[in-house]
């Protein structure tokens, strides 16, 4: 008869090591928080970087995708070799690299000169008089490219803006390299040293923290967007634009310094954590005979998760890499899952990257407010959905098929709800010479309009200037000169007011203020519905996040888990993280109505978009990609069902073989007992037990 005993030493060791596991769980959560904060802050500064370095959206997409390029360089090797090495210390080194990369991103601010926003009156220098936007003269005084003579480059055009964005790109690459080991090694470490029942909950908690990080990232972006880029370096009373102006650039660099310090702090705990932990199990061990353990297959107290071989050499690991990768890629369910997640992440990454910009351009909100709303309203819904998904999976004990169906259902419901975004539209901004003709100011048209008309024919105006003013008639003009304003004055808080504007009003004597018109009554009524629907869809879609991730872990063999997670990350970064921001940005660029001009020539950042075309391109591309992913899910469910059925049949077959072997041993024992044995010597008894 089996007996039970308490191994006090093992219990104390287990309790001691469980403390290390809890520390690791907290440290990993903080590392997830730090990397998510810096990543979301990068996305919150998209429009700031566009304006500061005067670059188009597709180039911003290249900068954003450079993070994934850093992952691509090392992810496969880190995931494979890292699983066999000291995982906590590798994660610590990654956090340090992330911190250094974040500091490098902020470096251009301290290397380039002060930011000079476009203004039509800056060319009048050393004048104590109020400059006259509309100069008497002839348009012929302009050069062939539409610039005033004073605007021509003077030879010192090697402006830092043209090249300094390279530092942002390189810093983001280094940040991507540092982030590589955090996810695959951290998740596999949790799954190796905890029970399967608790793994889903722990991973759900970590993923939830990673979604909380963007809340603070976007809030930090909102705060920094309100602060002028050169705060502390210029006299703020000389700045005549506000955060609502399309030329405003916030203190984008300040948030990167904060994010870099937080990321550096997250590396500290990992240096003190052990390489491995004991596999959790009951504190009371059953004292079974070695002979019983020898023939009973899959003994419950002998079952252990896969753990790395601590004595495996580097060369042996390298030789085993290609065969192991070939085995992984031959798994049909894993390949289908990979294709589906790559396509859906293309949709998700492109949508999230340009969502703040969509809110700015379509609903005419400031960058600060767009980031604030993303952080306070949208991201918490995602965090709640991720956590709720983990709880639901634990509560209903969903198996692999149940998790797959749950993730598919939530994604499909969110897809249907997202179609209602098409109905939430705003009228395009009224800009004379761009969306309106000077002759028909009540009819929006996207035909090519002339900027020069009878009301400003006596002014020497540049067609390339972007110094928008809002007339009393509610129409935006590209510059006070093109509005025909002859005089200007400075009011309180250095706000410029232009008067005697010949193109504004019937009498031509109305005034204009600096900045675009903010008439947005139709958008203000539609915007709350957009936010509500955005929160609902984000919550529903994120419900399937944790079950979908557990499907990835459970559909492959335990020894392939780290490599599967790493290769999944590699594929999604390469095929989704890198290209999605680039082609989303390129498509958004096609909807631009007015491009800025760089000092040294060439196209700069877009000043105004066709919001109708923007909405159709942005939402249409997002939903089209998700449609393709749903189609691919159909063969995925079929293959998953076949795999589960085969595994069930193999388990029944193994159980049947084990029962046959046990029955044969029992029959042999009966034969021995019934045979004529002269004496039951100790040797005979030992031999019988051994055979049993």
Question: Can you characterise this structure?
Answer:
By secondary structure, this protein is of the alpha+beta class. Strands 4-3-7-6-5 form a five-stranded antiparallel sheet, with no helix packed on it. Strands 1-2 form a two-stranded antiparallel ribbon. α4 packs antiparallel against α9. The radius of gyration is 33 Å and the shape is elongated. The N terminus and C terminus are likely disordered.
The radius of gyration computed from the alpha-carbon positions, rounded to a whole number of angstroms, is 33 Å
Shape: elongated
Briefly note the structural class of the backbone: alpha+beta
The poorly predicted ranges are: 1-6, 122-129, 138-161, 282-311, 678-692
Number of DSSP helical runs: 21
GO molecular function: sodium-independent organic anion transmembrane transporter activity
Protein name: Solute carrier organic anion transporter family member
Domain Major facilitator superfamily (MFS) profile: 24-645
InterPro entries: Kazal_dom (IPR002350), Kazal_dom_sf (IPR036058), MFS_dom (IPR020846), MFS_trans_sf (IPR036259), OATP (IPR004156)
């Amino acid at each position: 008869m089996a007996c039970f005993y308490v191994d006090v030493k093992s219990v104390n060791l287990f309790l001691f090591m469980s403390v290390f596991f809890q520390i690791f769980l907290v440290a990993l959560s903080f590392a997830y928080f730090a990397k998510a904060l810096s990543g979301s802050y990068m996305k919150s500064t998209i429009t700031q970087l566009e304006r500061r370095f005067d670059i188009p959206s597709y180039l911003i997409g290249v900068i954003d995708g450079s993070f994934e390029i850093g992952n691509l360089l090392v992810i496969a090797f880190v995931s494979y070799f890292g699983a066999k090495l000291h995982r906590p210390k590798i994660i610590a080194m990654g956090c340090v690299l992330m911190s250094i990369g974040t500091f490098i991103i902020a470096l251009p601010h301290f290397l380039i000169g002060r930011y000079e926003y476009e203004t039509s009156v800056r060319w009048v220098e050393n004048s104590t008089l109020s400059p006259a936007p509309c100069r008497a003269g002839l348009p012929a005084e302009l050069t062939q490219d539409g610039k005033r003579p004073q605007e021509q480059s003077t030879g010192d055009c090697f402006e830092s803006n043209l090249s300094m964005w390279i530092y942002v790109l390189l810093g983001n690459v280094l940040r991507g390299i540092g982030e590589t080991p955090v996810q695959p090694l951290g998740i596999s470490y949790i799954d190796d040293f905890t029970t399967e029942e608790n793994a889903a909950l722990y991973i759900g908690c970590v993923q939830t923290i990673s979604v909380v990080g963007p809340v603070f990232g976007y809030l930090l972006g909102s705060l920094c967007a309100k602060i002028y880029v050169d705060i502390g370096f210029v006299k703020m009373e000389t700045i005549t634009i506000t955060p609502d102006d399309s030329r405003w650039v916030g203190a984008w660099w300040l948030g990167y310094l904060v994010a870099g310090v937080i990321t550096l702090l997250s590396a500290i705990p990992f240096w003190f954590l052990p390489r491995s932990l004991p596999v959790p199990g009951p504190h009371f061990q059953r004292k079974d005979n070695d002979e019983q353990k020898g023939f009973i297959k899959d003994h419950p107290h002998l079952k252990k998760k896969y753990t790395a071989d601590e004595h495996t050499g580097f060369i042996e690991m390298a030789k085993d890499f290609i065969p192991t990768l070939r085995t992984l890629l031959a798994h049909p369910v894993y390949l289908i899952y990979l294709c589906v997640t790559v396509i859906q992440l293309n949709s998700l990454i492109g949508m999230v990257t340009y969502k703040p910009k969509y809110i700015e351009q379509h609903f005419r909100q400031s960058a600060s407010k767009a980031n604030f709303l993303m952080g306070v309203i949208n991201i918490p819904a995602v965090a709640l959905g991720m956590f709720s998904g983990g709880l639901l999976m634990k509560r209903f004990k969903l198996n692999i098929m149940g998790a797959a169906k749950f993730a598919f259902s939530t994604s499909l419901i969110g897809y249907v709800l997202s179609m209602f975004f098409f109905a939430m539209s705003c009228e395009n901004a009224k800009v004379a010479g761009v969306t309106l003709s000077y002759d028909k100011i009540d009819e929006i048209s996207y035909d090519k309009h002339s900027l020069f008309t009878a009301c400003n024919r006596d002014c020497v105006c540049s067609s390339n200037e972007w110094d928008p003013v809002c007339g009393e008639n509610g129409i935006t003009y590209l510059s006070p000169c093109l509005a025909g304003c002859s005089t200007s004055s400075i009011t309180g808080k250095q706000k410029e007011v232009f008067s005697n504007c010949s193109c504004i009003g019937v009498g031509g004597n109305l005034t204009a203020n600096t900045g675009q018109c903010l008439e947005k009554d139709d958008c203000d009524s539609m915007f709350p519905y957009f936010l509500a629907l955005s929160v609902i869809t984000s919550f529903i879609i994120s419900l399937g996040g944790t079950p979908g991730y557990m499907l990835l872990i459970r559909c492959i063999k335990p020894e392939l888990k780290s490599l599967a997670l790493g290769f999944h990350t590699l594929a999604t970064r390469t095929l989704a993280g890198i290209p999605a921001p680039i082609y989303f940005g390129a498509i958004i660029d096609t909807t631009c109505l007015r491009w800025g001009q760089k000092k040294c020539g060439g196209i700069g950042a877009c000043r105004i978009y066709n919001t109708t075309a923007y909405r159709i391109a942005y939402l249409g591309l997002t939903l089209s990609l998700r449609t393709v992913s749903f189609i691919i899910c159909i063969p995925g469910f079929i293959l998953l069902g076949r795999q589960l059925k085969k595994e069930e049949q193999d388990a029944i077959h193994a159980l049947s073989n084990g029962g046959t072997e046990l029955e044969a041993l029992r029959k042999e024992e009966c034969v021995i007992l019934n045979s004529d044995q002269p004496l039951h010597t100790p040797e005979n008894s030992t031999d019988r037990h051994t055979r049993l």
